[in-house]
Structure formats: structure tokens, C-alpha cells
Amino acid sequence: MTPQQDPRPSPSLAELERGVPFADRHVGPRPDGLATMLGALGLSSLDELAHAALPDAIRDDEPVATSLPEPVSETDMLTELRGIAARNTLTVPMIGLGYSGTRTPSVIRRNVLENPAWYTAYTPYQPEISQGRLEALLAFQTTVSDLTGLPVAGASLLDEATAAAEAMTLLRRAGKSTSPRFVVDADTLPQTIEVLRTRAEPLGIELEVTDLSGGLPEGEMFGLLVSYPGASGRVADPSSLIADAHGRGALVAVAADLLALTLLTPPGELGADAAVGTTQRFGVPLGFGGPHAAYLSVGERHARQLPGRLVGMSRDADGNPALRLALQTREQHIRREKATSNICTAQVLLAVVAACYAVYHGPEGLAAIARRTHRMAAVLAAGLRSGGVEIVHDRFFDTVVARVPGRADAVVAAAHDAGIALRPISSDEVGISTSEITTTAHLRTVWSAFGVDVADVDALDAATADALPPELGRTSEYLTHPTFHDHRSETSLMRWLRRLADADLALDRTMIPLGSCTMKLNAAAEMEPITWPEFANLHPFAPEADTAGSREMISQLEGWLADLTGYHAVSLQPNAGSQGELAGLLAIAAYHRANGDTGRDVCLIPASAHGTNAASAVMAGLRVVVVGTDPRGNVDLDDLRAQISEHGERLAALMITYPSTHGVYEATVREVCGAVHDAGGQVYVDGANLNALVGVARPGAFGGDVSHLNLHKTFCIPHGGGGPGVGPVAVAEHLAPFLPGRTPVAEGGVGAVSAARYGSPGVLPISWAYVRMMGVEGMRRATLTAVAAANYVARRLGDHYPVLYSGVDGSVAHECILDLRRITKDTGVTIDDVAKRLTDYGLHAPTMSFPVAGTLMVEPTESEDIVEIDRFVDAMIGIKGEIDRVAAGEWPVEDNPLRGAPHTVACLVDKWDHPYPRELAAYPTDGTPGVHDRKVWPPVRRIDGAHGDRNLVCSCPPVEAYGG
Fold it and tell me: Which keywords describe this protein according to UniProt (predicted)?
């Protein structure tokens, strides 16, 4: 038949112009693959699956979101977002306040920030296939510990303000003082003080912000926070304050500028117990406030009190050095309400950027950048003085405060008209901060704004002394490890980064089927805008008129998320899921207080809940009471009613994850919510599993009062090896006044939960782009495809591994739990053995032992096609066959392909004395398509975690350590 005779109607010109819908690129299974999955379930369509899997009581048969526009193509989305970005006005940022202009070296931007090998990686809980990012994080820790003079540094925290809050609670735990008082230097960053107030109030900490220039206030205290330099730029010796605090039984944290510490005596040498700060100026874009990797370092005696993650060195099965996350028993899913913090993500991707910046520049390069930054400030101040302008402080690093009585606004306006943003402090004072991007041309522009003319900058420079206190000059060495000296050329750094990436297994190489973590596609079109200068180079305290584009994008995204979840309002300030949880619970507590219900302090949490739930409840000042679950994994209604009856008027909230942490749509969720509401409590619906709800059900419509949403799961912000994350909080109308930052703590509000007004706005274009290109129908399709994939996996593997929980009709939600406990009991083969053996198949392991010990939780997501899903399923079936051979006695429990996994090239070419053939160790399904060409060679064998915890090494070890 010729084209002219083809009876099918031709696509319209408009359809041809739109091209392939983005949803067709995001959703992995092709129509035939989806038909195969649905056929295995006895279904014919996604709508039929929706009716089969979701309870009638919660299901939206038609999407109801109204504010979302029709989806657009990638090209049209980028064009639209370009238009929004153009509404931002970029100036040279000389505002300071903890945020500095910086240059991300192109080799780092291209090979890390824009490289899916780095931004699609997951948290390195499988260390054998995470050695690359662990090595980069070890370089980060070493950078921080060397510069702060404190030997133990974590693998990053969320921002400087939350790092200070974590330090506050660490000092309280670690110290011996019984005083509830925490004293804070008034010259601390204002956003840090605000977050400290938010975090202190529910914990009963008495926060006292005071001027320390005349010494400590009278009385006892458990801790002290001093700033070095201060928010004003002033540099003073804090050693006498530290000694005085120690004399009163208090511990001391110092908020320090990491770049300044290349020139100043480090806090550890001044006697500090802890140091906090940000690594933003180490090559991390401003991003309108985030994401940026914060740091917290401590002395060795406080190492086991450190919140968050810590990379340590251990050894593998062959005795070779190997890296892993140390002290993992502190993780919240284990410690729950006894956790030291609710932090469950870090800022790994940004920490890697900062570490690479330190590696690329080395100690000499960092010191040169610091000297340049300081000289710009010193010469700036000298020029202003030459024109009769008073400079408030004589000793400073990069920030100058100029006094111009009654003229501050005029000066700031004049500088802004010339393209430079300064900081108005009052009508009489202006703050100016220099950075590595400051030039002498910028100095001339600033002088001009003040009405000062400097004829000869070189002569002024020659005549100007440094403004740093000579007695605080740094004398100790730092960054002496070869890593910080061997990669000066771009060629060397590029190859180092490639070597590290090759030591990792990320989403760019294989499916990552982690239950509850939703490792889905992070599309290139979504990622592209985050490095646009209009978004990346925007200072968080830029004038409102300069940020119209970003605020428009943020407002649109907040509205879309509210509609998709059925809530009234959304705040994007929480910069991690843990902070979203805390913000939601603080909103509930503030709401009860506003109603006079000051006695409501009980938070009911199902036994199956995420561990961060319990930790967040304690941080919000609530008392955790556990509610049992029934044999199907649902909330036990009888126990719930009993707990409600027992706690009565003390009930503040119930936290529930939906679908449940067990991967099930609970049919009784409305009944659960109703029982809590009838008792006067509020319902917190954890949004960790929102990937099973978008477009098909809304937590705000089936009983939730508040939810946090993980944008790094459902809405495509990549995990980045363990961060960045964004955890916005969505609330019903009656809780809207209590969203974070809208009402000060002193007025009964919640206060800020992160340093920046919008948390981590630098990555919000990713989620905006995803929603804009998918539309409601596309996201509904994604949700149901994810549910179809999980049920397909459960159906195919059910005969080999018991599926622990399912709904009343036998279906699961977007994830399923494979129960290996009986297998382990009968054969000795553990989930660790299975997880490590999957590496030999070229696959990442599912989530281990959560929410049930001895199980694997599998979430395939909607982005994986049936070929990749079948590859995983076939691998699991192949592993079950190997387990059966162990059970049959063919191989001993202690020496078989599973216990020996993962197998490195080195162990395979060495003398072979195992009862299984080396060919089977290397290629477990030899002859199966897709095995040889997808082979992963791990750099190390199985790691001895206990050895690493007993012998904690958490900075770059000497070269001799690698000698075997």
C-alpha cells in the first residue's frame, strides 16, 4: 500500500511539532513491555491496575489538580524556564553574610556537577561499589579537619545554620553541665541565630544571644558558640572566651570561615571542642541560598557523638584498605527516638565539589585565593578611609563595615545601579564582602558609590598593611596528603575523577532497586538549568527586585505541589526530608499551643515507620508512643484505639507513612485518620512514598493535615550520592500560619528550619521542569507504571522468595519486601551475601533490613524498562539457585559464591582455592545476554565493618596504608 493509500489519519501539524511527549522518555517500559507486566498480573490497563491496587476510599479516578498547565516538550520547557530565569537580575555579589562569589572550575563542573556518574549515585551503604565517592568524601573530611584543626569531621551537613544547631545539641549531650543555657555570639550570622532559636525552643534549651566583645555573661552554661570571623567581618581572638567557658564546665563551638582558616589560627588550636561552617565558597554556586555542604568537626573524644555520616577506613576480605560509612549504628532507622539527630541525608554532591576544589587548588592555591580575597578587602577599606569614610573594624578577613551617617541607602543604590550588590546594615552602615571573584574594577565601582576616587590602586595597595591580627596568623601545615598535591593539571584531575567514578555504581550504569528511596531517572533536560548563571549565581540576600524569576518559579512549584497533594499551602524551606518532618511536627505543636492545648505532647508512630519519624518527634518536643502493626503490615486498629484511649487529651499527632513502609496501600487509612481527628490530634502523612500516589490519590484529601515531600525521590532531584535533598512541607489551611519561617518563634510560630529562605532553591528548577513536562496525566502514568513494575517483580519472584506484605487482594504498592529470614535460618546465607553477590551480576542491591531485619525491599520505579527489570529478577532467581546449592551441601556455608562476593579481578587472577569455579564467581550467569557487557568489577572485596568501627580512621591515611 502506498502512503497515499494509507487509510490511517496523518498526525496533525501541531502533534508533529510537539514531537515525542516527555513522559514517553521518562517512563521506561514501552507499550509491549508494559503489556507484558500487566499481563503477568492478569490486567489489561493501568486504570484497571489502579482499581485493583488502590483502595476505593483514597483513589482519585480522575486527576483533580487544577493549577497545573498542560505538559510541554523539553525544548518548550527550557524556553519557558529561560524566560523565567531572565527575570532575575545578576549583580556582582558583595553582600556576604555567609555566602560568597566563587568559581567552579570547569573541569569540576563538567566532570562532577554535570556528570550522572556522580549525581545519580545513591548513599554509599554498599561500600564495595561506592569507593569513588567515599574517597572524595574522605578528601572533604580531611580538608575540614586540617583547616579547623579538629581531627574528626563528618561527610557534610545541610547548611551552616543547621550544622550550628547540630553542634548545639552535640555539646549538650557531650558535656557534663546540667545548665540549659546556650550562649551565642551576637556577631553570628542572623540566619544561624534564627535556626538556633527554632531548634532550641522545643528542647528546652535557653538560648542567649549576647555581645561577647567584653567577655562572657555571668552564670553557668552548657555551651558557647562564637564566630570567627564574625558576621560583621570582625576578627578577634576567641581563645580567652573558650578558656573561660571551659572553666565554667561548658563546651565551645566556633563558627569559622573555612577559607579564612588558611591564614588564621584554626579553632582546634585555640581550644575549641567543635567547629561549624559552610564550604560554599569552595567552588559551590550560590544558588540563591543552596544547596551547600556544611561542615562539623570535633575532637576525637566527641567522634561518636557526631551527627550524620562519617567516612572511615577499614579493610576488605583480602586485608586491603577499603572505605565505608563508619559508626552506622547511629543511623536513625536503627536508633529511632534514641537517635542523636534526625539527619538522614547530607550534601554529598556539593561536598564532592568542595573537596575537588581543595584537591585542584591544593594548600598553596587555597592560601593564594584567601590572600587575594583579604587583600581586596584591605585595599577596599584603605581606599574608603582615604576618602574620609569611617571603617568600623580594624581587623577583618573579607568583610568591611563602612559608616556613612544617613547615606547607606544611597550608597547601596548607587552600587546596585553600577552592577554590584552591597549589604545595607542600617541607615548609617554598609557591609561590603570580597571574594575570589572580586577585581580591582569592582573596588573602583564601590569607591565610586561612596563618592571616593582612588587615583592609583597599585600605590594604595603597596601602602596598605594586612588587616588580619598578626597574633592569629596560621603557622601549622594543612592538606599535606599527596591527594592535595598530585592533581594540579586538568589532565590529572580529570583522570582522578574518572578513576573515582569507575569505582562506583550509579544509575547511569544500572538499575538501583532501593525500596523507599525511589532511584528514578533524573533527566538531562531537568538538570540543565541548575548551572545557568541566572539561577546558579544568585545571592540569597539579593534585593527582591533582582530575584523575581526565581521567586516566580518557586511560587509556581509550591502551588503545583499543593494541588498534587491536596493541601492548602507548601513551604520549600526544608532542605531535606528530615527537616520537612521536623517542620511539619513543629507546625502541629505550634497549632496546639495557639489553641491553648499546651498539654498535647504525645506522637503516635507505627512500629513500621521510618526511623527519622521518631527522631523528628523527639526534636519537636514530643513524646513517642509506638503503635503496633498487624500481620499484614498495617496499623493495628485495636492498638491504635487503645493508645488513643490511654493518652486522650495528650494526643498531639499520629505519624503515618502512606503507602505504608511495608509497601502496602492500607485500606483503613481514612479510619485511622478519623480516629486521631476525633481525639483532637493531627495526622502527619510521611511523603516518602509519594511516588505511589501522585495523580492517583492525595494525602490532604484522605485525612492528612501535613506531609513532607521528598523532591529527591518523587520529583526527580537526584540523590547525588546522599544529597542534595529537598523536603518541602505541605499543610492544610489551618496549619498554614505555622509553616516554617512565617512567624517568629517568639510570637508562637515555628521559625526557620534552614539557613536560606527557600532552602535549596538552586536545585528546584529540576522539579519544576519535571512537573512542567510530565503534567498530571504523565505523573499519573508514572505512578501506576511504578506500581505495575513492583507487582511484576513480586509476582515473578514470589515463588523464590516470600513477599512479606501485600494488600487484601495480594497486590503491593510501588515496592515489595522479599523475606530471606527462613532462607538464612535454613542455609546460613544472609541478605549481605545476596546483596554482595548482586554486584557480581552488575547490579545494585535493594534496601537491606528495612523496615524488617533480614529482608530486602525492592522498588523498581517507573523509569526502568522491562529488560532491566527482568535482568534484576533473573539475577535474583540465579542467586536463589546458588542458595539451593549451598542448602544441598554442594558448597560450604563459609565458602561459596555468595559468601565470597563481591569478586575483584585481583582475587580471580590470584591463586584459586575455592570449591566453586572462578568462572562462576566472575560471570554468574555465563551465556545470558547482558551479563558480560554489563559486568561490574568492584575495586575491593567485602569490607570488614566492625574493624573500621574499632579502628576509626576518618581522614586521608598516609600513603603507606595502601602498601598492603
Answer: Oxidoreductase, Pyridoxal phosphate
